[in-house]
Amino acid sequence: MVRTKKKQTDKNFFTDVFEVARLIPPGRVTSYGAIGQYLGLKSSARMVGWAMHGCPKDVPAHRVVNSKGLLSGKHHFKPPEKMERLLKKEGIAVVNDKIVHFADVFWNPSAELALDVAKPRKKRPKLG
DNA sequence: ATTCTGACGATGT
DNA sequence: AACATCGCCAGAA
């Protein structure tokens, strides 16, 4: 699912966002910016968020938060508290709409998926 | 076509 | 640390 040089801003981009979001392991979270960066739209985190606006149900949108670990998207869930509830159910502590130990549960697609699209890394940062 | 908004992020003050 | 500004780019009005 490498971003093509051409017109990545098609529906293609959205579907890719969904695809990556689906890869987020339970009990982990990532940020809009991280997904955007993984897809090559590093500075277009808003697009990722916008993409989630119309994401399928099989996409764990509740595992996607902003870079500060805030549940900025909770307001868009049917019951806004569902996002927080789902996270807690997966073992993620949430206090004041913020993920506790955000760095510990953060899942970076660029590192975990390690595409090595262009530059193979000798060792990838282990988040375990 | 133009303007405004947005589930964001980095930077400046 | 809290707040303000800019950049980002796709949709909606």
The gyration radius over C-alpha positions equals 14 Å
Give the overall form: globular
Q: At the fourth CATH level, what is the homologous superfamily? A: Winged helix-like DNA-binding domain superfamily/Winged helix DNA-binding domain
The beta-strand count equals 4
Average pLDDT works out at 84
Strand content: 5-15%
Largest sheet: 2 strands, parallel
Give the uncertain stretches in residue-range form: 3-7, 116-128
CATH topology: Arc Repressor Mutant, subunit A
Q: What structural class results from the helix and strand content? A: mainly alpha
End-to-end Cα distance, whole Å, is: 25 Å
Number of separate helices: 6
Share in helix: 25-40%
Order of strands across the widest beta sheet?
A: 1-2
InterPro entries: ATL_DNA_repair, MethylDNA_cys_MeTrfase_DNA-bd, MethylDNA_cys_MeTrfase_DNAb, WH-like_DNA-bd_sf
Domain Methylated-DNA-[protein]-cysteine S-methyltransferase DNA binding: 12-92
Protein name: Methylated-DNA-protein-cysteine methyltransferase related protein
Pfam family, one: DNA_binding_1
